[in-house]
Amino acid sequence: MGIIGGLKRKVGELNAELYALYLAYRDSRTPLYAKLFVALVVGYAFSPIDLIPDPIPVLGYLDDAILLPVGVILARRMIPEDVLVECRQRAQKVMREGKPANRAAVAVIVTIWLLLAGLAVFLVAKVLG
User: Fold this and answer.
1) Cβ neighbours of residue 52 under 8 Å, at least 6 residues apart?
2) Could you give the CA distance from residue 92 to residue 45 in angstroms, rounded to a whole number?
3) Which of 50, 60, 81, 116 has the lowest CB atom count within 10 Å?
4) Domain residue ranges in the chain
């Protein structure tokens, strides 16, 4: 397997893990602090907005290559092991069968980013004005 094949496999594993985290987020056994952190990680992963824009050479993809895996690792440590194992099994099954589009999740992510952008504008206006 070449470099490209290895990268594709890693991306597939990351997608499955992100979906498992999303399922854990929806599980009632997951603590609130873990749900909040998982929402940030999954929202960042699927958001078109990055901390460093992708067109910037090297740095644009470096934030995704570092922040996302670190966020996933931290999120996994916050979720009870039995919940994570069950959610991983469900995620693997869904990934094999084809992941359904979840418009509600997209709406939540867009709403969160719009609220954060509005908060940022408000804070900047308050500081400057």
Assistant:
1) 59, 60, 62, 63
2) 18
3) 81
4) 3-102
